[in-house]
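*** Backbone structure tokens ***
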Amino acid sequence: MLDRPEDPARVEAPLVLDTEPPRTLRFRDHFALWMNLGVSLIGFSTAASVLGTQGSELSLAASITAIVAGTVVGTAMLGVAALIGARTGAPAMASLRGLFGTRLSYLPTVLNIVQCIGWGVFELLTIAAGAQTVAHTDGYRWLFVLLAGALTTVLTIWPLGSIAVLRRFVAGAVAVAMVYFTVQLGRQGVPDPGAGNWHGFLKATDTMIAVSISFVPLAADYTRHSRTARSAFWGSFSGYTLAQVWCYALGLVALLQSGGDPAKIFDSFLGVWAGWLFLLVLVLRETDQSFANVYSTAMSVQNLLPKVDRRILTGGIGLLTTVLGLQITEFTETYTNFLGLIGSVFVPLLAVLAVDYFLGAGRKGWNLAADAPSRWLMLLPWALGFAVYQFIAPTPVSDGWTEFWTKAQETLHFTPQEWTSASLFAFLVPALATWALTPLTRRAPQD
């Protein structure tokens, strides 16, 4: 057993997978980490996805309600993943050895690596764009990407120390910046272009659920260091819920004040006195998003290569995302949709994971060893959940993909309704299927 000192900065995460993690993180550490992750420059601009298209916007009351409801539901799911990580002490993808067996766990692991690298690059581009906005320049993008990539990589080398820094210094600065912008923008009034309109409310709620769930395949990478499962659940749930609701609500206000144009949303922030200074705080803070993506990529790779030093992995992945960020000027809509497609994989996966852990084989303790036997039957409810998600809301990655699911809807005479939430149904259906299979899945799995 490793010692468990009071301060996470005094001891670091294990270098290889088979070393027991130090249990140093308390409620306030989890709260600070997830509060920082819940505030995002991307969140401000994507508030437009909640408001809806121009001419058919939701009312302000409906938008805020969707933000709160969707965040609470999605973050509760995040909290479950965080709790499982705290109990098993294993990184997120390594926990899937218990669910699928070691070799089958490689499938979701590879998907998570792809999405984490993609989002890591996206964050570097977002940081660079934010820095250009603050500096009032269209140039030096390469410099901002390089600096953001270097800082991201340094943070991942000392992950527990970085979380301690977030708690002690960054969380307070972010809170001050958010309070300042809330007061300043609130004083200018908030227009309500969709007054009285609740049409599209559930779609907006579904969007917020999906945003919260996006961190599900990363949560255990950090909560494995938690002192207690309770602090892991409530720290992640409360910190992320508070921050995301605040972030999207503030983004909604800024969006409405900028005429509903997401491209001009930061004009609202820069339009207040000293706004550039507080926006700079939020731009610098954005590196915790790239930190989470790069570090979790390394943790996922360790499920494939458990003996490789995580510092080598994070250094290499940090370099890779920086190089890609220098080469890519913007993400195409097709690739963004592709990342969304991968994200839809993890909604049903969490359902299968949670039911099997609490009601199935996990009740007697999962086998997380390197030779954990394959559990092929667990792929069935996962695949079913993914199919349900795409059937209700096909991800537009290509014309052929969308056409396939559209024809499936026509064949079954199904038309998506206001109440058909892709995220919720893609969670409930595989959860029920996994529960129904519990008598079979409790048996010892065989290769």
Notes: DSSP finds 20 helices and no strands in the chain.
